[in-house]
Amino acid sequence: MLASGGDRRPEPARASRVARPDLAVGKGGASMRLVVDLNKCQGYAQCAFLAPDVFAMHGEESLLYDPRPEEEQRERVARAVAACPVRAITADGLDRAGASQGASDAR
C-alpha cells in the first residue's frame, strides 16, 4: 500500500501478537503459558472481553496478549480459552492448579 508522499508502508497484520508493556509480559506465573494461533484467530475479541488484563485488541484486527499471565488470572483465562469461537488459544498448565485444588477438596 502506498502512503501519501510515495512511502511504502506494510499492510497491518491480522491478529498479530504485539508486546504490550502494561500487560507486564513475563511477570506472571510460570506455570501457565498461552499461545494464540494467529492463523486461526479471526479477531472476535471474546478473550479480550473475558480476560482484559491478559488479552486486548489493538485496532480491529491485532490481538495483544500476555503469554505468561499471573496466577490470579487463571479463571478468567480459562473462560477466555473456552469462549474462543475458532479455538485459537492454547493454554498450557491451565488445569494444573484446578486439578490440585480439586484433589485437596476431595479429602
TrEMBL record:
It comes from the Bacteria. The keyword Transmembrane does not apply. Keywords: 3Fe-4S, Electron transport, Iron, Iron-sulfur, Metal-binding, Transport. Residues 1-14 have a biased composition (Basic and acidic residues). The keyword Glycoprotein does not apply. Pfam families: Fer4_13 (PF13370). Gene3D superfamilies: 3.30.70.20. Its cofactor is [3Fe-4S] cluster. Residues 1-22 are annotated as: Disordered. This is Ferredoxin. It comes from Streptomyces rubradiris (Streptomyces achromogenes subsp. rubradiris). The lineage of its organism: Bacteria, Bacillati, Actinomycetota, Actinomycetes, Kitasatosporales.
